[in-house]
Amino acid sequence: MSELARSGAEASGRHEFQVVASRDVHVGRVVAMRVDEVVMPGGHTARREVVEHLGAVAVVALDRDETGADRIAMIHQYRHPLGRRLWELPAGLLDEPGEEPVAAARRELAEEVGLAARDFSVLVDVAASPGFTDEVVRVFLATGLSAVDRLVGSGDEEEDLVVHRVPLAEAVAMALSGEVVNAAAVAGILAAHAVRSGAATARPADAPWPDRPTRFATRT
Hints:
Elements: H1 3-11, E1 19-27, E2 31-39, E3 45-53, E4 56-64, E5 70-79, E6 84-88, E7 91-93, H2 101-113, E8 115-127, E9 136-147, E10 162-167, H3 168-177, H4 183-196, E11 203-204
Parallel strand pairs: 4-9
Antiparallel strand pairs: 1-2, 2-3, 4-5, 4-7, 5-6, 5-10, 8-9, 8-11
Helix pairs in contact: 3-4
């Protein structure tokens, strides 16, 4: 535990936010929504809407171009809630029962960008919006890349996605300029830059993931 995390734990409050009632509002294919009644520090209860999610993985697939500079495999994909195409990392849901996150990362890397990787490590875990959803994305770093057959033809948005190899320095600039807004992509790009520059170290591919979502998966 870092010194900052240790000091935060020591300063944390002691109230237990107990759930005294809960009801489902919607249970869909990918998410569910429930409403919890939670005991607040003052003794009253407050209503909290929670979107349950399967969790997901994303992959920073990194190799070098002909000049020796790092480059990253990115996709340009339509996202209906925002109504436009976004720059993203290869990514996908943890929707295969019993599948380990790194195995899901391998699968998505092959399916979306036609790549396999020799080595995987963990860059960051990203809580998408913890104020209302338990969605957390684990972002992997993949190196030692090789080409494999890409599976296309689901009939969904993935059939229209376009793959680009972008210099890592350019991807960092895109994240900081607002051209890349996907949370996992922004976090993964900046984390990869930190690791490659020597400012940080990636974690093992099987590093503990205490915040991996589980509640929605138990419904199916």
